[in-house]
Prior knowledge:
Elements: H1 10-23, E1 32-41, H2 42-52, E2 56-58, E3 68-77, H3 78-85, E4 91-96, E5 99-104, E6 149-153, E7 164-173, E8 184-187, E9 193-195, E10 201-207, E11 209-216, E12 224-229, E13 233-234, E14 237-239, H4 243-254, H5 257-260, E15 266-270, H6 286-290, E16 296-297, E17 307-308, E18 316-320, E19 323-324, E20 329-330, E21 335-336, E22 343-349, E23 363-369, E24 378-383, E25 387-397, E26 401-410, H7 412-417, H8 422-425, E27 428-443, E28 446-460, E29 465-483, E30 486-503, E31 511-529, E32 534-554, E33 564-565, E34 569-585, E35 588-602, E36 605-610, E37 621-627, E38 632-650, E39 653-664, E40 666-669, E41 680-683, E42 691-704, E43 709-726, E44 742-758, E45 763-777, E46 793-794, E47 801-810, E48 815-824, E49 828-829, E50 832-838, E51 841-846, E52 852-853, E53 857-867, E54 877-885, E55 895-901, E56 904-910, E57 917-925
Parallel strand pairs: 2-5, 6-12, 7-13, 7-14, 18-23
Antiparallel strand pairs: 1-3, 4-5, 7-10, 8-9, 8-11, 11-12, 15-22, 16-17, 18-19, 20-21, 22-23, 24-25, 24-57, 25-26, 26-27, 27-28, 28-29, 29-30, 30-31, 31-32, 32-33, 32-34, 34-35, 35-38, 36-37, 38-39, 39-42, 40-41, 42-43, 43-44, 44-45, 45-46, 45-47, 47-48, 48-53, 49-52, 50-51, 53-54, 54-57, 55-56
Amino acid sequence: MIVLIPAINMKRFLLLLFLSLHTLVFSQNDDKVTIDVQDKTIEEVFEIIESNTNYRFYFIKDWIPEKRLSGNFENAKIETILNAVLDETVLNYFLLDEKVIITENSIIYNDFSNGFFENKSLPNEIALEQDETEEKAPIFYESTNEKIETVKIGRETGTLSKRKFVIKGRITEKETNAPLSNVAIILGDGQTGTVSDIDGYYSLELPQGIHMLTTRSMGNTSVTKRVIIYNNGELNFNLGQNLEMLNEVVIESESDKNVRQAFAGVSQIKAQEIKTIPLVLGERDLLKVAATLPGISKAGEGSSGYNVRGGRADQNLILLDDAVIYNPNHFFGIFSALNPFTTGVVDIYKGTIPAKYGGRLSSVIDIKTKNGNSREFSGEGSIGPVTGNLSLEVPVVKEKSSLVLGARATYSDWILNSLDEESLKNSEASFYDVIAKYNHQIDAKNELNFTAYLSSDRFSITSDSLFAYKNRMFSVSYEKEFNRDLTGSLILSNSNYEFNIDYDSDFNNNFKSGFSINDFQLQAILDHRISSDHTLNYGISSKFYSLIPGIIDPLGDDSLIESRELAKEKGLESAIFISDDFEISPDFTINGGLRFSVFNALGPDEVNIYDPGQPRTEASVISTENYANNEVVKTYSGLEYRLTGRYSILDDLSIKGGYSTTYQYIHTLSNNTTVSPTDIYKLSDFNVEPQKATQYSLGVFKNFNENMYELSLEGYFKQTEGIIDFKTGATLFLNENIETEILDGEGQSYGIEVLLRKNLGDLNGWLGYTYSRSLIKLDSPFESEVINNGEYFPSNFDKPHDFSAVLNYKFTKRFSISSNLIYQTGRPVTVPIGKYDYNDSEFVVYSERNQYRIPDYYRLDLSLNIEGNHKIEKLAHSFWNISIYNVLGRNNPYSVFFVTEDGSVQAYQSSIFAVPIPTITYNFKF
Length: 926
């Protein structure tokens, strides 16, 4: 007899037919079998038959259903037993001598009866005159190159018992496993089909044969399956979201955002877009990338502050998930303390700041941690020369909640201890940061988020002092959609920053000292869509500050230092705000806002009252006033105006203008040129007034070549009042009467910013140029408090010319090169201009403050980026970054200073990186 397997493609059939003619001969076996089956699986029944007879079974294990059987067979034919065992399954069998071949769905035929080859592929309808018990021809289908899944439904029988068969099933969404209603299931002819009900179920009656079924649904992928129907059966569909279509919509809506949005002076950085930019020691750094944009700069390498449009570093509000980060840097600003693998986007407002933000004059840097993957476990990390970084995304409740965990640490201590240099061996330089975010989608209208963050630094490089500082924060936000036009957020946050210094010398003056600031803030914010033309954003906020301005304690039993702690400072900053995004016409949109802020300096406090006709010194104190705990010492308040607008001249050309006023009630006390980890924060109080700024801006924004290129030109002018500066030689730390060292100044800054960005193509990146001036005036009725004759002079961070070029070129999908070129005018310094001799020593006469400049700064960085292969099924996707920081080996001066040695004045220059720094970093994602 000839054996062949139907329901396969024709090539396989012909090959099997050829082999059958040469090797297979069928013979019927009439042996009887006696077995007893009690609560056994089908596979266990096969094993019983094999142990009691010479029959051997051949099958694929995955085909066998989990079905349990019971029965007693005495002197029964093997066919009788198999028919009973395989009843109500889709399995068939074929006997070849004492071999039992199990097949799924289809039958193995052993002869060619009449009409065997007549219906090579049966039509979708069977002739009505066909007898119900007529033998059926096997089903064949042609092999094609289409990647279409073939599914067999039901169990084939040798005769036609019905004209049509019913297939049933359920349609669900792949990501959520939720039922999908109103999904159309269409036959290949497009004329017939059915639709799923509200619970995702469907039923379809079809004739025996081959059918092409296709699903159609808005928002879900379309699936086509080749279905071979032998009998009644079940077919389920699991459809994914149509993410490709959604992504295209998002990209299109964002591509002209720079032209269409009302706010000017806004930049956005996405963490995934900066991975190829070469930075020092291969570290991805969101804030350093921000400093390559026009209007944002750093005082120099190794400085932890950022200057925005001529503002001081303490005038920037840096938020991580709505909580303040007071020092977002590790190791004097060389490394960022923000994990790029857990960060989603960074929004930077340097022009008109939205009314919901307050408390700083220059900018808001709003950093958002991304939500985790709620469907499957995933992660990302990097291994660099001095740091390791890892982030994990863990589903907690599938499709509802997730946890993002990020950690980064340095192994620089291990490197230092491995060096031969004895002084460096005893050094310490370590840091780490950890972050965790929990996101819970309660339902479609309610969402809960919780973020916690900690960073820590310790360093002592060939010195007798150990410096340590920490950031700690947490925030909880509850977001609710009341209806389609009204949504709200309730946010509670806490931030803490502290530093400590342990001084250990060979004398009996060892000590430990420190400072800390802590704040709690509660915000309630509503977004209300009044109409298609008006969208309101309004709310209230209140923040409570608590500062320990300074503390010192002896270190060791032999220390002669006495314990001392300055009185705690407390303050309450509250605000109410409202803004309206008003579309006057499709071409003209304005955003107007008001923010009324109030600051209360709180007791306990002892306040010095100074003679208004004299400079503030200890000698000019005329009285003191005492305030009880939480008693209001002084109240400051102000109405802040926020107005910005956009007028579209063309679809891809617009003009934007802005006007804003801002108040700042907290100050940084530092007589360093740049921000340092040991800077002290000071609240406004009876003798220290808040800072205030007014800014005007105007810009032109143009896109080219279907938004491939962006060009912007912005100008600004800003005036500032209440700027704190200090007298020469001022003592700031542990000073109970700090107001006696303060100079009250005013500032003026202006500039033009140009940005050309290419978003698409093998070559992409941006060119940025800023011409800006930052000036300060320190004038007073008292001659001892006048600097530079009371005229405007350059601030410490005034750098008129600032150019940057960040470019990336893709050779292939795996290989690319990146470059980072920076040029800046040298920063202002005060230098000796004369000298005189006194008591056989040489002393110097200094110029007016900030009259000269250090040499200009420029640097070129290059990197080669190598992506791993793009196979989908792999353990992890890798990315190599081979970079050289400061390719030209430029010895850029960080500062210059002068000292008297052996009776003569010597000039010195300090630099951070004076040679090229090569780095290899391995990144992976799984």
